[in-house]
Amino acid sequence: MKIITKIINSNNKTMKKIFACLSILFSLFFLFLVYRAYVVNQPCKHQIKIVESASKFQINNEILNRFKNSLKIQTVSYGQNNQNFSALKDFISFIQTEFSDIEAYKYAKLDIINNYSLLYKIQGSDLALKPYLLAAHFDVVPADGQNDNWKFDPFSATTDEGFIYGRGTLDDKSSMLGQLEALRIFLKKNGQPRRTIYLAYGHDEEASGYQGAKSIAKFLGNTTLEFVLDEGTMIVEKVFKGLDTPLAYIGSTEKGYLTVKFFVNTTGGHSSMPNPEESAIFIVADAISKMKKNKHPSFLGYGPETTLLTRIATNLGFIKRVLLSNIWIFRPAIEFILSMNPTTDSLLRTTTAVTIVRSGVKENVLPSYAEFYVNHRIHSLQSCKEVLDYDLAVINDKRINYEIIDCSEPIKTSSIESLGYSIIEHTTYQIFPGVSAVPSIMIALTDSRFYTNLTENIYRYLPIRLLNEDLKRYHGVDERITTQGYEDMINFYYLIFKNTDDAHLDKTRELRNEL
Ligand SMILES: CCCCCCCC/C=C\CCCCCCCC(=O)N[C@@H](Cc1ccccc1)C(=O)O
Ligand SMILES: [Zn+2]
Ligand SMILES: [Zn+2]
């Protein structure tokens, strides 16, 4: 300020002219940034929710108890080919008993794929319309981690203050049971659908999906689908400060996946004569520390997160809207801010999580072996190989070996102009008025990755409203869903069946015009 005052008060006309020109240029540039934020970056038609909300069904105790009973069956996956197979069989019997009417429906067929996965097909009346597929899975992650102190037994399906607590309430039994309840209502009210429906329920999604969804995809062979809707991101409030509008994040792309085991063999010995340079544990600890300090690079401004953040900008206040509408110039500042929140940081880059560390056999023995597992979620602009090469460069220690445990390349981004996206968006506005939909990045893997040969239109989206702090309940403690949330889910899937049946390709634009 002192410099500006000095220039204004000085007799130096040249300085004054330069200052005046710079002030004009800065003002024009600022106006340009504001123009881009408020004129160029408009809430696109997708985000204008003028859709009438639909009449909703009330769920009764029978439907609620059926869902709760499904949660009590402990269909736990511990790893590939390491599952509670008897519980999976019990669950399949439960579903076949509780939804025997669907299986018996004259246009319905149920195939049990690879012994444990389920594929329902409801034959549509209009063979000119492409079928579509709703996916879910009924296996769950364990709920007995060392520090898992649940409020209630994770498999008791206890109801408390409007919430149903249990492993699988969010991930992913609610969508499976919700779809089946909605289908039962749809068939009763409307009879045979026009468009063929597939319901694909995997039994090992939490153990990679290689036995379940991958086998379902193989069974479907050359079937061409209009779209796939699987579990995924959801309606989340307050993902970051200043974002008060609840946004429906419809995952139109999915990050890749790479798990690498790094390990070292050294000489062991008596712990009374330790050599730090030869310590297997120190060697892996140094490697882990290097990985912590060297996150994978941010791709902000180059990947699908750019579209997402630019759309989010239209729901923010002035400063944040100007910032996020001009990522090209404010990239470093935006990166710094988004990197501080694990959820938003996961949009920017390939994430690195050290999830297992093993070494040692006895407290007075120097271990001769140590290993650690790194789980990466790969940004859509990277590949498994690039991520591994970066890890090896960061570790930079020839003593450390590696083994690739699992790898899945990022999935191609699906169009948001498709019938499938339009219907998911439209249905969201019908069930969740006041919500704005944005195409998002599915930061975890879903079974839908196995369906890329059946359609390009794959969306990962769970129709549930959560608060940001609820996200840690996924695979975490006190996973829960409100009874209202489960009711909304059933109504959402009912309208998916109805809207998909009413809309056909040339109606996409009509649907769009309604938005
Ligand atoms: C500003 C943008 C914010 C975005 C908000 C949405 C944030 C979403 C947060 C969490 C996503 C919930 C994930 C729900 C589905 C999880 C599916 C899952 O658990 N998949 C497993 C599959 C797998 C893969 C390999 C081995 C075993 C299992 C996974 O990804 O770990
Ligand atoms: Zn899941
Ligand atoms: Zn999961």
From TrEMBL:
- Might you name a Gene Ontology BP term for this protein? adaptive thermogenesis
Recall the GO molecular function terms of this protein's record.
aminoacylase activity; carboxypeptidase activity; metal ion binding
Q: Tell me the route in metabolism or biology where this protein functions.
A: Lipid metabolism; fatty acid metabolism; Amino-acid metabolism
The Gene Ontology CC terms held by the record are:
extracellular region
Q: What Pfam family is a match for this entry? A: M20_dimer
Q: Which domain of life is it from?
A: Eukaryota
Residue intervals of the Peptidase M20 dimerisation domain: 254-390
InterPro entries, per the entry: Bact_exopeptidase_dim_dom, Pept_M20A, Peptidase_M20, Peptidase_M20_dimer
Q: Which reaction does it catalyse?
A: N-(9Z-octadecenoyl)-L-tyrosine + H2O = L-tyrosine + (9Z)-octadecenoate; N-(5Z,8Z,11Z,14Z-eicosatetraenoyl)-L-serine + H2O = (5Z,8Z,11Z,14Z)-eicosatetraenoate + L-serine; N-octadecanoyl-L-phenylalanine + H2O = octadecanoate + L-phenylalanine; (5Z,8Z,11Z,14Z)-eicosatetraenoate + L-phenylalanine = N-(5Z,8Z,11Z,14Z-eicosatetraenoyl)-L-phenylalanine + H2O
Q: Which UniProt keywords apply?
A: Carboxypeptidase, Hydrolase, Metal-binding, Protease, Zinc
Q: Does the keyword Hydrolase apply?
A: yes
Q: What does this protein do?
A: Secreted enzyme that regulates the endogenous N-fatty acyl amino acid (NAAs) tissue and circulating levels by functioning as a bidirectional NAA synthase/hydrolase. It condenses free fatty acids and free amino acids to generate NAAs and bidirectionally catalyzes the reverse hydrolysis reaction. Some of these NAAs stimulate oxidative metabolism via mitochondrial uncoupling, increasing energy expenditure in a UPC1-independent manner. Thereby, this secreted protein may indirectly regulate whole body energy expenditure.
Family statement drawn from the similarity comment of this UniProt entry: Belongs to the peptidase M20A family.
What is the name listed in the Swiss-Prot or TrEMBL entry for this protein? Answer: Putative carboxypeptidase PM20D1
Q: Give the taxonomic lineage as stored in the record.
A: Eukaryota, Metazoa, Spiralia, Gnathifera, Rotifera
